[in-house]
Amino acid sequence: MQNIDLICIGKMNANYFAAGVAEYQKRLGGFCNFRIIELPEATIADKNASDKQIEKALQKEGEAILHAVRKGAYLVSLCVEGKQISSEELASMLAERAGSGAGDMAFVIGSSHGLDQRVKNASQARISLGRITLPHQLARLVLTEQLYRACTINFGMKYHK
User: Which of 7, 115, 20 is closest to 70 using CA atoms?
Assistant: First the structure.
């Protein structure tokens, strides 16, 4: 069974998003070994932080992200400059990895400041959930639902219409 990790910076603090993520996480269990890894957001004391302070925080988060990725996993960063893909394209990405014999995948959602460039550079793919800006908790819910949808596509189920 394929291992799929969702590595996120920050915790879920809105119950309605957490309930949705938990539901899709439960559903994904029938298709893959799915786990969510929550890493702490780096503290930036100054609300008017400089670019250098933000960069330092992103570097700290980036180190934690790269440390959390399973060895050999196909790393996918969610970032604004990523490629917009369809549900079917995501399904194909999962199927290709599962069929390659090295099916481990890790999807990464960074903090409100984004992702460290080293994480993006280490990624085999960069995807975007669209041109709109989503709160990180909502992005987690949307990605989790799309991973479930991709699995149902690959298994020929009627969930995807």
Answer: 7
Question: Which residues are registered as beta bridge partners of 38?
Answer: 8
**Exposure of 71 in the CB half-sphere (CA atoms within 13 A):** 0
What CATH number has the domain spanning 3-154? Answer: 3.40.1280.10
Per-residue model confidence as pLDDT tens digits over 134-150: 888 999 999 999 999 99
Q: Does the CA dihedral 68-38-65-79 come out positive or negative? A: positive
Distance CA 110, CA 123 (A): 13
Lowest mean pLDDT among 18-22, 126-130, 155-159: 155-159
What is the identity of the amino acid at 110? G
Interatomic CA distance for residues 11 and 110, integer angstroms: 11
C-beta separation of 119 from 108 below 8 A: yes
Q: Give the Cα separation of 83 and 62 in Å (integer).
A: 21
CB 86 within 8 A of CB 56: no
Domain boundaries, the chain: 3-154
Q: What pTM does this model have?
A: 0.93
